[in-house]
Amino acid sequence: MKKKFKFGLASQIFLGLILGIAVGAIWFGNPNVETYLQPIGDIFLRLIKMIVIPIVVASLIVGIAGTGDSKKVGTLGVKTIAYFEIVTTFAIIIGLFLANIFQPGQGVDIESAQKTDIGQYVETSEEEGQKSVAETFLHIVPTNLFKSLAEGDMLAIIFFTVFFALGISKLGERGKPVIAFFDATAQAMFNVVNMIMKFAPFGVFALIGVTVSKFGFDSLMSLGKLILLVYAALIFFLIVVLGIIAKIANVNIFRMLAYLKDELLLAYSTSSSETVLPRIMKKMEEIGCPKSIVSFVIPIGYTFNLDGSVLYQSIAALFLAQVYGIDLTIWHQITLVLVLMVTSKGMAAVPGTSFVVLLATLGSIGVPAEGLAFIAGVDRIMDMARTVVNLVGNALAAVVMSHWQGQFDGKKANEIMKRKPAPLDVN
User: Fold this and answer.
1) CATH number for the domain that contains residue 177
2) Alpha carbons 103 and 89: distance in angstroms, whole number
3) pLDDT, tens digit, for every residue of 117-169?
4) Residue 246 belongs to what domain range?
5) pTM
6) Which of 121, 184, 404, 427 has the greatest number of CB atoms lying within 10 Å of its CB?
7) Is residue 4 part of a domain?
């Protein structure tokens, strides 16, 4: 008897992706596409943003309050930040190495490409660029929790939540009803995710349709070398660098990619890793990562561990230097590494992160910031790929930290990932 094909949510999202590309290509350059479709895509992204903070806060409280060990939390925090810094540095160096070898900006005529207004990012860049390293880390400590919640400042929210969870753990029996409340809150929010995900195919269709209609396929030609190099670099980092790290943690990177394929498709389509944050956290728990580690490492990784983004930023910075004929010495490039290491952390939560970081970085190596208008029109197509790498990097970070803490069985995890992955529903 033939197995009946089930047109599940992942298939619906893929269909939305294909239809969006078709609509954008057919009506390329038509402003009505953006007028009618952009609100649909924005609604989906807003729905996701609406539930991210409640899920992170509730899960983090349940995970940490359940362990009740402040020393463990402190050790985990130090190890997590150290791991993020090491991997991020590798990503930047790989980006610079490949950009130096392949020279994507050589022979490119900057006047021939589509120019895009980047004024919306300049003010944010100037604002953030004036912050010192000390101020960047000082910003993590919130002065007003409700202001941080309203602004979606994830690092400040996590900082408060960790202390609040440790406070609950000190209550003993009296704290159990509070833990039960937040556990129920987390489960309720996962049910809300299920409802929101039914809208995902429409969100993907709208976002992809708008993207393709704005830049089309012809406009990729003048920047084709940059796009190809960024994709090749991201694939190399994903398979080789993260593959080696996964091997050390006794996990097969290809099995992990297959296990997360539905989430990766959705993240790629929407250029937003937030869309799958709840599901990624759930899946990492399913393969054996402790809840206390998952709920701590992954949300922090969303602002501190952006491997795909910094790899792209290092390539883009050298690309623009090559376009302008600016010869960067080894010391300029070391400066670029150091600046990116700081700016990519300090501005992770601001809108248009990659452009803001690049604007704040280019000045340090003498590259005109106006050059960003040259690549702004096709940034979205590269953003899709770097979002996937960011996502896999953070999922793997939860595995690495669990392994490092001696709380992960790689053999068992591989067996779970070999089975048919659960559908996109989170129940």
Assistant:
1) 1.10.3860.10
2) 21
3) 444 444 444 444 445 556 666 777 888 888 888 877 777 888 888 889 888 88
4) 10-418
5) 0.78
6) 121
7) no
